Amino acid sequence: MEMTLIVLIGAVAAVLANMNIAVFNDGLRPIVSEHTEGRLTRRDLAFTAFAMSFGLVIGFGIPFTLTASIILIHSILLGTDIIGLMTPKNKWGTPVAAIIGGAYGAGLLVGLEGFVKLFEKLPLNFLPAMGQVGAPVVVTFMAFPALAVAFQFSVKKGLVTFIVSAIVRQLAVFVNENKFLTFSDTAVTLNQEGMALITGMIFLLVFAMKEKKEEGTSIDLAAIFSDKVAKIRKNVVFFMIIGGLIAAATNLAIMAGDPISLNLLADGKETDAGIAAAARALGFIPLIASTAIATGVYSPVGFTLIFVVGLFSPNVWVALLAGVIVIFLEVMLLASIARFLDKYPGIRNSGENIRNAMSKLLEVALLIGGANAANAIAPGFGFFFIAGTYLLNEAAGRPIVRMAVGPVGAILVGIIANILVVMGLMTIPK
Q: Residue 207, class by beta-carbon neighbours within 10 Å (0-12 exposed, 13-18 middle, 19+ buried)?
């Protein structure tokens, strides 16, 4: 079943890109629209897609996939964007895109299993140490609403949000330790990070809804781009298919929508991963809704809520059905969502701040996690290598995105450590 799901996801996503219906890379949607409206050739579109997505697949998607042995959605869907847009949109090009996309998905899954077996045969198996890459992410994720509040409103309000979130977290720890909450004589354990996250999101939403719309600034995007909305609705069946498939794959813990929920899922914390995925989805709704309405090109994962239903569903079949229903409702409500965001500009603007806050948090957390993992593989040398790699990457103009420096650096340390062990220049850490 796992292989079938991944192959189908790869095939359908490649077809959606090939037919200019949906692409995963947010930055590609306006460019695909330029092509469909005749202002950009297919050749230029293909080269642009490759330039925008290939580096992210190699430097972002694959490293995270390897650290947790769970496929990060970026690994597969950024690749299918390239495959779909580089194959001609005609009667033979579309089937070819489906075949290559499916084979690419299968290759990711088989390659992942092969990598795990390969690590076990190395002189120094550094795969267990790679689990430390995501450890700081799980704990620090609760701070992102406070950072988003600071970006959008003020540092003072961000600080208040952070302090209250921290207090709520410690209260949850106190309640758990003293077993104050019980149900049928069984102690109920609160997730302290989850409680802090919910508290921060409440502060963010309250501040955002208080931000009033200025007189004469209302723009009904859904009305202006009614033909684009109609195009997306016309293809709703495609979105329902891939939405169900991705939700099912997420339920089976073979796929995750972001590095945070991926690391939680790798630790077996499905509920925590679902909460993290829901918080992330909130930040993506304004971006995906506005770009979809303006371009007529949707995202194969919709508002990313399909990951949430996949994680909270009791089994794979419920997840499959829930994914189909959720993405259908998203498409049908697209115009209404756009009008709501226009009514509350604070919420619309918060999307960008939420994403920026998450990116900043991930950059710091993954650098710390990568350094810890590297140092566990090669004590002393690991810290030196990660620090040097980060600084040299900055000096070179960041050829590797900041949040990937930690995971990529840890993998490189693992490779170097194995070479040193074989050469007799390093002993295996105990």
A: buried
Amino acid present at 290: S
Please give the structure tokens belonging to residue 369: 């996690």
Range with the largest mean pLDDT of 34-48, 137-151, 280-294, 415-429: 415-429
User: Whole-angstrom Cα distance, residue 347 to residue 412?
Assistant: 41
The mean pLDDT of the chain is 84
Phi and psi angles of residue 244, each rounded to the nearest 5 degrees, phi first: -65, -40
Hey, what's the torsion of the CAs at 242, 247, 253, 255, to 10 degrees? Answer: 40
CA angle, 334 as apex, 328 and 335 as ends, to 5°?
Answer: 140
pLDDT score at 237: 95
Q: Regarding predicted confidence, which is higher, 69 or 320? A: 320
Q: Are 75 and 10 in contact (CB under 8 A)?
A: no
The Cα 328–Cα 243 span in angstroms is 9
CA distance 375 to 414: 10
175: tokens are 């309640």
Cβ count near 170 (within 10 Å): 12
For residue range 409-429, what is the model confidence (pLDDT) as tens digits? 988 999 999 999 999 888 887
How much is the pTM? 0.71
pLDDT at 55: 60
Does residue 261 or residue 309 have the better pLDDT? 309
Residue 349 has pLDDT above 80, yes or no: no
Nearest to 313 by CA among 239, 228, 243, 250: 250
Task: Classify the phi-psi angles of 357: left when phi > 0, otherwise alpha if psi is within -120 to 50, otherwise beta.
Answer: alpha
Beta-carbon-side half-sphere exposure of residue 186 (alpha carbons within 13 Å):
5
Phi-psi map region of 150: left, alpha, beta (phi>0 left; psi -120 to 50 alpha) = alpha
Structure token digits, residue 277: 């995925």
Enumerate the domain spans of the chain: 2-125+216-343, 127-211+346-423
How far apart are alpha carbons 64 and 390 in whole angstroms? 17
Mean pLDDT, range 224-244, rounded to an integer: 87
| Torsions phi, psi for 89 (to 5 deg) | -90, 85
